[in-house]
Amino acid sequence: MKRLLSLFFVLASLAQGSEQSPHFQVHRDHQVDSFPLKSSHSDVSIAGPIAQVELTQTYSNDGDQPIDATYIFPASTKAAVHGMTMKIGDRTIVAEIQEKKKARETFEKAKAENKSASLLTQKRPNIFSMEVARILPGDELTLTLRYSEILVPNSSVYELVIPTAIGPRFSEGTAREESVSNPFLGEGQTTPTRFSIDLALASPLPIKSLACPSHDQAKITFTSKRDANLKLPAVQPDRDFILRYQLAGKKIQSGLLTHQGQGENTFLLQLEPPVEVTSGDIPERDFIFVIDVSGSMKGFPLNLAKDLFRDLTTTLRPKDSFNMLLFAGANELLSLRSLSANKGNIDKAIKFLEQARGNGGTRLLNALDQALALPNDRDRSRSLVLISDGYIDAEAKVFDLIKNKASGTNIFPLGVGSSVNRHLIEGLSHFAGNDHFIVSHSTQGDKVKERFRKSISTPVLTNIQITAEGVTLADLLPARQPDLFAGQPLSLVGKWNGKNSGTLTLTGTTGDGQKISQAFEIAPDELNPSLPVLWARAKVRELADFATLTGRESEAQEVTNLGLKYQLLTPFTSFVAASPEARESKQDSIAVKQAKPLPHGVSQSAKSGGSSGSVPEPSSGLLVMLVGLLTVTLRVRRS
Questions:
Q1: What average pLDDT does this structure show over 305-321?
Q2: Torsion over CA of 431, 437, 439 and 440, rounded to 10 degrees?
């Protein structure tokens, strides 16, 4: 009874604004046991179009009882995670890649044998779970992840994103998903975790501009015209880290990178398409604007969506047409058929959009389904423009819908907010074959609007084909080359069979019917060891969402085989590490989950309305305290 009263007073103090998360403490005999993620540090090396990242997470057990902990954290959707090590004290253990079920069994067996262990699991392509077991009092545990990704320039601008925060997800079903089930901090609470970065950039061309729009604290220094360093001191992880840079000359270097390995040759082909397009080259267009007006869009995101639509209408010609669908808990459609883009219809649409205030859930799947089913004039170039923060947990179903029903429609997703669901926004562009856009801060609105307007207005290249001479092409990704729009480069990964020299040729048709061709020579003995795993990551990305959605054994097994062969984290493979010897302590472990801060600028109200993983704020009343009391009590094992 005395212990229960102690727990009650701990929760009562939390309800009055304590700086610690109530979901992350266990009060025992007047002592608080905690297991925070102390720090997360990224060492980044960018060489040409490839970024290599080493992410180090440091945990510590500052209490007096062993701990089992779970930490959910975000990552880039393009990341190919291909290595992990675990260090406790002076011992460093290299993690093994195993089939997901087997890795779980290895982890649980180590726990049962009183061994320290760690398990890295992919919950979604952009959300990972790190579990650690049997961390004794006084232990400091260091976990290091290694991943690579291809940087694809957009309108001549390269961008590297390292996500650090996860927004609450609205569930379109009845079941809550474990992948985002860690709690969020309440009003006035802060996380003890800090995030920092050391980055080195080596460019093949002089760097014209380099900036970090997400963090004013970042310090950038140039060591030459082609080399620069960035240092971000320890900060709270409540927003994505974003680095943008542009090379001199306003034109991206086109070229081919290759890797000649044992029994496998891999390449990466990138080029900038033509950007000069006249009005006569552009066909009649039909735009369908699908705009998120749910609660999480309230304020800056929705205001920007309204500004963006008004701005885009200035590019419409009277011979073009458009329609608009607003969605939250339900859909509102401007017209049953697309309207002519005259001033009267545009004014009608602006008035229709201005009434939106931002409330309700995010039922994106239903909105896209209705928009794609609208009548379509096949003689027009149709584009669907989606504006949303993407806070849903039905990404795979959305991708499946686009894959099966978006034939003949260009999809242009625009993410708005300080911590956009990039898996959804980038995934839509991946499956649709078009570009995506993200505005993480209100000051970026004008630049993104301009780039967005240019991108959706100017198709420049169709009927794209890749051919080879002297070698045989294999496993080209994406399998279907999309049409190109001005300012959007082409990035392809693939393999070739045969000798170590030859030519790859790209051909296509411009808007006025002219044929273009560009040839690339395969250089003998070139080595880029990141390319095989980056190819495997692209293949996994193509297969994994549909394997998860449909449960088809063939696709799931192919993803598993790719993960095992290339030492790659996938939905069906995990990294696991365990200490070889048992730990000295025989005490039972306390199970804890690290609470996450809401992304910068996201209201506490976004946690309600069915958001998976949200918890009530401690200040919301006696009932909440009693529920919290019961939760913590059940977690305390008898010492």
A1: 86
A2: 50
| Greatest CA separation for the chain | 84
Looking at the predicted structure, is the pLDDT value of residue 456 above 60? yes
Report whether 540 contacts 559 (CB < 8 A).
yes
| Token pair recorded at residue 369 | 């389904």
Reduced to 3 states (helix: H, G, I; strand: E, B; else coil), residue 79 is coil
Alpha-carbon radius of gyration of the chain: 26
Exposed/middle/buried for 35, CB within 10 Å: 0-12, 13-18, 19+? buried
Task: With residue 382 as reference, give the H or E element that holds it.
Answer: strand 381-388
Residue 360 lies in a domain: yes
Q: How many domains does the chain have?
A: 1
Contact 478, 492 (CB under 8 A): yes
Residue 35 binned pLDDT confidence (cut-offs 50, 70, 90): low
Q: Residues 223-252: what's their mean pLDDT?
A: 86
**C-alpha to C-alpha distance for 511 and 517, rounded to whole angstroms:** 15
pLDDT in tens, 341-354: 999 999 999 999 98
- Residue 368: give the domain boundaries: 283-457
Task: Answer for the pair 278, 543: CB distance below 8 angstroms, yes or no.
Answer: no
Tens of pLDDT, residue by residue over 458-509, are 767 666 788 999 999 999 987 666 667 776 677 889 999 987 788 999 887 6
The per-residue pLDDT for 242 is: 94
Q: Tell me the Ramachandran region of residue 313: left when phi exceeds 0, alpha when psi lies from -120 to 50, beta otherwise.
A: alpha
DSSP for 289-350, written as a single string: EEEE-SGGGTTHHHHHHHHHHHHHGGG--TT-EEEEEEESSSEEES-SS-EE-SHHHHHHHH
Give 541-559 pLDDT, tens digit per residue.
878 756 655 556 778 899 9
Q: Which of 287, 279, 272 is nearest to 458 (CA)?
A: 279
Cα 238 to Cα 596: distance, rounded to the nearest angstrom: 9
At residue 441, φ and ψ (nearest 5 deg) are -150, 150
Question: 531: closest CA among 503, 572, 504, 495?
Answer: 495
Q: Mean pLDDT over all residues of the chain?
A: 78
Nearest 5 degrees, angle CA 151-CA 427-CA 433?
Answer: 80
Structure tokens at 330: 């339900």
CA dihedral over 454, 459, 461, 462, signed as positive or negative: positive
The pLDDT, as a whole number, for residue 277 is: 65
Domain with residue 309: its CATH number is 3.40.50.410
Task: Give the DSSP H/E element, type plus range, for residue 72.
Answer: strand 67-74
User: Quick check: 273 pLDDT over 50?
Assistant: yes
- pLDDT, one tens digit per residue, over 600-632 is 666 655 555 433 333 333 333 333 333 343 343
Query: Which one-letter DSSP state was computed for residue 8?
Result: H
CB 496 within 8 A of CB 256: no
Q: Stretch 36-53: mean pLDDT, rounded? A: 90
Strand order, beta sheet including 157-162:
157-162, 241-247, 207-211
For residue 343, give every residue at least 6 positions away whose Cβ sits within 8 Å of its Cβ, in sequence order, or none.
none
- Average of per-residue pLDDT across 328-340: 92
What is the per-residue pLDDT across 93-119, written as a single tens digit (0 to 9) for each?
999 999 999 999 999 999 999 999 999
The reply to whether 532 falls in a domain is: no
Is 387 within a domain?
yes
Residue 192 placed within a domain: no
Token duo for residue 568: 């790659």
3-state per-residue secondary structure call for 218-265: CEEEECCCCEEEEEEEEECCCCCEEEEEEECCCCCCCEEEEEEECCEE
